[in-house]
Write a structure and sequence with these properties.
heterodimer; A: 109 residues; mainly beta; globular; B: mainly beta; 0% helix
Chain lengths: 109, 118
């Protein structure tokens, strides 16, 4: 099945930019979706279809996808952005089509 | 506004069957979309279990396929998960979610913790 690899952790100071990567074989040919999960809460969709934002998600959250890496970028990081972030794709060629990444813990210093 | 709510026993004995229901409000399941189940063991990442279309067609995670059944009840506007022959490894928070045609999940239910223990 398709594998999505994320760094276990990313640390960033308030006001700076956090970049969370999601690696997969030719992931640039797929649509990537990103979720934010705060402790004790359900995941929330923050970016879909590589770079679109659902209603209510700040413009500080943006996404890109090319080659073997997709990236979620959080600009002007705030303390409230501290959470786990997961990428997800649908792999049409797989018998395990819905795949989540391993997750990244973002810590705001 | 679409809302999903999981319900079911919080404790299941080993070798028994885990049964959960996801009640959907604010949208009629029979109108479309896929609906999915995802789980998260304590302290670990998300694992997709399976999804069902409003018509009843399903697809499952191959690693769980032999033990999983997902069904839909459009009259009650809910869908259900059954996982048989559970072990401690099936202890997790179980989430239900709506799955868009272009494959993302939104929104999610609040999740329900199921512990497998005698």
């Amino acid at each position: 099945s398709y594998v999505l690899t994320q760094p276990p952790s990313v640390s960033v100071a308030p006001g700076q930019t956090a970049r969370i990567t999601c690696g997969g074989n030719n992931i640039g040919s797929k649509s990537v979706h990103w979720y934010q999960q705060k402790p004790g809460q359900a995941p929330v969709l923050v970016v879909y279809d590589d770079s679109d934002r659902p209603s209510g998600i700040p413009e500080r959250f943006s996404g890109s996808n090319s080659g073997n890496t997709a990236t979620l970028t959080i600009s002007r990081v705030e303390a409230g952005d501290e959470a786990d972030y997961y990428c997800q794709v649908w792999d049409s060629s797989s018998d395990h089509p819905d795949v989540f990444g391993t997750g990244t813990k973002v810590t705001v210093l | 506004q679409v809302q999903l709510q999981e319900s079911g026993p919080g404790l299941v004995k080993p070798s028994e069957t885990l049964s959960l229901t996801c009640a959907v409000s604010g949208y009629s399941i029979s109108s479309g979309y896929y609906w999915g189940w995802i789980r998260q063991p304590p302290g670990k990442g998300l694992e997709w279990i399976g999804s069902i279309y409003h018509s009843g067609s399903t697809y499952y995670n191959p690693s769980l396929k032999s033990r999983v059944t997902i069904s839909v009840d459009t009259s009650k506007n809910q869908f259900s998960l059954k996982l048989s022959s559970v072990t401690a490894a099936d202890t997790a928070v179980y989430y239900c979610a709506r799955r868009y045609p272009l494959h993302w999940f939104d929104p999610w239910g609040q999740g329900t913790l199921v512990t497998v223990s005698s």
